[in-house]
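seq:
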Amino acid sequence: MRRDIFQAIADPTRRAILVLIAAQAMTPNSLAEHFDTTRQAVSKHLRILTECELVKQEFQGREIYYQLELNKMKEIDKWIAQFRKIWEDRFNQLDDVLSKLKTNKK
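struct:
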């Protein structure tokens, strides 16, 4: 089943995992140490993140390291950027109105 990247980041644990592996690649065991949950639960979150291509696996011996897939994260940023632009435009309009009000008071 192909999942949507926004379904993947909707879960707070998965977002926390993304923050952790953004700094460095980590194994499921090392990730599980940061949560009050089992390694199996962390592995389930990692499977979803992998299916959505937000993380990629790298095998080193018997260990699997997970690291952030930056290109996929750019898709999220691109979607959010459209809203950032709307809010920036609105704040700029508000700044203009406030500047005009200040000028008119003088």
